[in-house]
């Protein structure tokens, strides 16, 4: 079975993200893909946050430290090691799917994975929900030249956490990206048309395109015109 690496958002963890992304997880399974929900290596405590968290929230994790006083602030070494270990445990991966901070990392992984694991084949796709470019100048090389892995950028028009401007900066850093907008906020949308469009994009990266997928590709073309407005 083909496996998709799934990277959660800030303060989430793998199991929570699996629940939050249940609609796309079930659609992937129906299409013959296993979803591997990885947990980030950095613990987050409520004192690290400038916003309230859900009561009873636990196991809050991150892909890199976000506290500017941490000596490892915004360093990716632990995240890369976690992904490298995941490749050895559950790889190879067909593609990558990420949300928010996880989407920012997922985009970088499309370029850096061959360096982390030279034997790993190139990823065939990246689905990036509410993604953004990593901001330190030391990471500018990840986007130059543009990221070449086929990518779908799913953006909520009401997202107040990651602005459309930030998500579009990542979109502009990719070669021939696709965009899909939904009338929602900062979450992985579960509406059937959105899930179907995401799956049509993923199926379009399969080679060769089988006759059974032609209708899906056509559906994607239709929805792309709607979502891109």
Helical fraction: 25-40%
Mean pLDDT: 88
Q: Largest sheet at a glance?
A: 6 strands, parallel
- For the biggest β-sheet, the strand order reads 2-1-5-6-7-8
Under CATH, the homologous superfamily reads: Alpha/Beta hydrolase fold, catalytic domain
Instruction: Determine the CATH topology.
Output: Rossmann fold
Descriptive labels:
229 residues, alpha/beta, hydrolase, Rossmann fold, LovG, globular, two-stranded antiparallel sheet, 6-stranded parallel sheet, single chain, 8 strands
How would you explain this protein's 3D organization?
With 229 residues, this protein is α/β, with parallel strands linked by helices. It has a single domain (2-227), classed as Rossmann fold (3-Layer(aba) Sandwich). Helix content is 36%, strand content 16%. The protein has helices at 14-20, 22-30, 77-90, 101-116, 164-172, 192-204, 214-227, and strands spanning 2-7, 33-38, 42-43, 61-62, 95-99, 125-129, 151-156, 178-182. The protein has a 6-stranded parallel sheet with strand order 2-1-5-6-7-8, with helices on both faces. A two-stranded antiparallel sheet has the order 3-4. Helix 5 (164-172) links the parallel strand 7 and strand 8. Residues 209-229 have low confidence and may be disordered.
């Amino acid at each position: 079975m083909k496996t998709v690496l799934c990277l959660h958002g800030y303060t989430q963890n793998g199991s929570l993200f699996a629940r939050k992304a249940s609609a796309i997880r079930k659609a992937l399974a129906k299409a013959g893909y296993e979803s591997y929900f990885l947990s980030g290596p950095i613990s987050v405590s409520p004192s690290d946050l400038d916003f309230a968290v859900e009561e009873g929230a636990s196991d809050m994790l991150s892909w890199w430290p976000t506290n500017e006083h941490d000596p490892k602030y915004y360093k990716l070494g632990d995240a890369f090691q976690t992904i490298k270990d995941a490749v050895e445990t559950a790889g190879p991966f067909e593609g990558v799917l990420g949300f928010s901070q996880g989407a920012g990392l997922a985009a970088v992984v499309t370029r850096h994975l061959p360096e982390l694991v030279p034997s790993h084949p190139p990823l065939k796709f990246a689905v990036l929900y509410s993604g953004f470019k990593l901001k330190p100048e030391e990471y500018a090389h990840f986007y130059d030249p543009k990221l070449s892995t086929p990518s779908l950028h799913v953006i909520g028009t009401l997202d107040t956490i990651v602005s459309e401007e930030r998500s579009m900066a990542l979109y502009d850093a990719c070669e021939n990206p696709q965009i899909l907008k939904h009338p929602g906020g900062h979450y992985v949308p579960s509406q059937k048309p959105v899930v179907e469009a995401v799956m049509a994009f993923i199926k379009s990266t399969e080679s060769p395109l089988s006759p059974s997928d032609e209708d899906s590709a056509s559906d994607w073309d239709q929805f792309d015109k709607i979502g891109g407005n």
